[in-house]
Protein 1
Amino acid sequence: MSLVHSEENNNNGKVCEFAFYKHLGNKLPVVNTLDDLIRELRELFDSDKINVEYLNYLMKSYKSRPADWKKYAKFDRCRYTRNLVDRGNGKYNLMLLCWGEGHGSGIHDHADSHCFMKMLQGSLEEVKYAWPKCEGEELQEIARTKLELNDTCYINNSIGLHRVENSSNIDTAISLHLYCPPYDQCLVFNKNTAKTTVSTVTFHSMYGKRLKDNDKILAQPEDN
Ligand SMILES: [Fe+2]
């Protein structure tokens, strides 16, 4: 399986949603519900070549409806949580991340995975950083984006590093993430020194069922 871009795009994290249009024979799928989105994603990943713009289009087409996803939305008082929605035949993980007030991730990479993200509730701030040239130097911020309801974004290691934060002290936030291929470890960076630590990731819940601490399985990155 490989991810490919439409010819009109480059790999800079900004995608033109309709650059893939000709690949579909001018027929666009209907994505009204989260189940529609899951179905279309599974169908897309039946192919060996995944068009990045089309995947982004699917994520963007779905308009958040809390009734669709509330069974997956499980919060923790102390930190953001990762809640598995679909394993995508082992080719990708689709999950809800639930961010309490003030919760944020560390600055992290994404292994060899592609990360697609969509806002389902509230807002988040994404801060991107350039890869450090050497250990000991402060990480350089290259972009800062406020993500509002239904916004999408995309990152992989060729674009840089990022951290995500719910800066609100009043509102929670929920985002939908697709990681392909799935990964269970990533690097977390110290902002001042670029020193890295390996972070292993776990799920807070799977398919709407909360996991006990002892049962937590690998599959959740970007922690510190
Ligand atoms: Fe991330």
Protein 2
Amino acid sequence: MANAESKSSLIMLGQSASQASSHSLEDATPSCWSCGTMRAVHFCSSCGKVQPPVPVDYFTFFGFPRKLNLDTAALEKEFYALSRKLHPDVFGQAEEQERSWSLEQSSMLNDAYRTLKDPIKRTEYLLRLEGIELEEQSKQATEKARSTGELKKQVVPPDLLEEVFELNMHLEELRAQKKVGEDDPALLEEIGRAKLPLEEKHDALLNELKSEWNEWDELVDASAEAGANGERRKILDKMVDVLNRRNYIRNLVRDVNEAMEN
Ligand SMILES: [Zn+2]
């Protein structure tokens, strides 16, 4: 359990990564290396030559605003179009340099696509851009927790305390039984039943997350600056909270499934 909990929590990092790494498309894409006119992220819009990769975020890579309600059909279409254009075979006769740029661009394209098409990965990625790191990915947080000996925060969803408690009891019982080689079908059945509300909550939390997306996107549309920082942070914090609760349930259900299978 302790393991599952520590993996599930998200923490805040002080500085906003977006402030440090935000590149406007124009800053990030200087002149084409070949013809000298204004280039685009992947290809020169004038001569069509593939361009060296630039450090833009995945939203910018696809030309999308940094919003969470994303047109996944448009994303997929753009992904396949770019995949074809960047395919290494296309650059078989090209200069070594161009071929290697096309490979780098292809790999960024794949990463960007995989991240943006998945609703949870997309949300976590946006949070990262906004300076909020997943705890399991944050070495800094892990080292800090280790050096201070402090326990990472537990995020049992408050409305599921009873269910979680019950499931954990069953889980202990099951593990104890397995240890002595016993098999109790009634217990397994009970665990299966106890899992249901958690699985339902897991799905419901995705919808809760999506309503936070709407708030975020409205804020982006309003492009409210300084004054809205508090509001911005509030929405991001709520998304972190939803993800924490969802991860907690996911890990618990996974633990239960593992215990039942072994
Ligand atoms: Zn060009």
Protein 3
Amino acid sequence: MKRRMIPMILSLLIALSACGSRGSAPADAAREGEKDSTGLVCPQSVYFMGHRDFGLAPDGCYAGYNDKGGHLESRSFLTYIDRETGEEIYLCGKPECSHVDEDGYILESCDAFIGNMMLMSVSYYDGYVYFLKYDRVSYEATMARVSQDGSVHEDLFVVGSASENGSNYDYVVDGNIVYLVYNDLDNFQLAREGTQDVSVPLEKIDLTTGERTVVYTNTGDMALIGNLKQVGDRLYFLQYSKQIKDGFDSYHLMCYNTTTGETEKVMEDEVYSYTIVGEDTIYYNIPADGVYRYQISTGERSLVRKSDDESGYLFMAYDGNYLYLDNNNSCIMDSLYGDGDCEQKVFVCTLEGELVQVIPECKGQIFTQLSDGEMICTKSFRVGMGDRSFYLRTENLQEETPEWHLAERPGE
Ligand SMILES: [Zn+2]
């Protein structure tokens, strides 16, 4: 039991480090019928660090970058991958702007420039690109947004001050309301010292009035919340909590009802990751077993795909047709506790769990990020270019070996 929990906690940390944000709201909107109008649907909870991020909009897939390799002097900026051309465009409406200097670094005068801080957790909602700005000197995080044409930049509210141990965030935007969770990784230091309980609040922030309300709190010797996804008035999230002295330990999918204000556990199983398919079905991963289908209305569950050595810890997404199962964390677990020969890949399966395609690791990439819909996006480190976005169109899944394409930046 003890041996199993260590990787579970570690992998939840990995899952939470950004899980999120960003992708959930658009992906959920897509599931509710907006996909046909937008076509390209961006990632759903497949993130490692929050600054590696995409958000879906009608014209393309928005991305946030931190140039100069993410060092303290890093400058951050926004782009989008045009759905039609696959080109990556700076989010700038200034007609005469060249966007970058002769060395290829973003100009401070460009609309796409965000600041001398880390940018993470990008999402798109109703004409705005939302994101978090993280000051690496003060450790303060601010939620901000930029209008879709790049011209209006607004700081919305200060999320909180993170600790030196780091932090992770997740949020969804719903009209003028933001639901947000902030996990301070100092919690783990405190838990190790056994000095006090920690609690993680799920907050509701009204962007019109600025009012902030805690709608749910997870408390324990260790406590985490992450992986927010909203469908109608149901806000789903994963929580981990542990009471060392009572031997109490839980790892669950929860649901906050935004109409009634009630929060309840969705099922008794320990859920590692999940994706929502339609109004009534959840697919979820239990690393030791595999992928389950759960019907919300009846509580019926069935195993649709068994796990093996390289497909235990899965991130999941759904594109309206197929399930995408990313084994990145299985490989991390394998490198830590196994023989280290796990190959990073994405299994594409039907809703019955039948394998359709295996998408290979993107060139030199560290962490895959999935999109739902027509285009699958990932960020990959490319020598001499830093982090860059790559994509793969779902229509190419029929090919024997689907290929990743670099999202070219015109004029580069
Ligand atoms: Zn520009």
Protein 4
Amino acid sequence: MSKTKSDIVAGLGGDRELYSGLIRLHILHHAAEERIFGLGMVEELARHGYRISPGTLYPLLHGLERKGYLRSSEKRLGKTSRREYQATALGKKALNGASNKLRELFGELIEGK
Ligand SMILES: [Zn+2]
């Protein structure tokens, strides 16, 4: 099963390309603060109005892990287990750089500076 890039951010209509970077940053932000897991992140993103299915979120998580921004481990929960993700030092550094860019963009876009 292969997913194309445009499948990644389903549920955002024709604007999905614009949002895909924001969603990655959003994931990275939460992973820098606490351990996150797929379904929890699906709910968190839904809270912000991003409707993403687990099938589209997991490739994002894997991609961020491949880049070295996230590290994952298996957590045992009784008889089952789930994979949890947390930001690496590299991921936090990338997030920092992106935050500066976002601040700049926010200034222009929202505050009209
Ligand atoms: Zn959030």
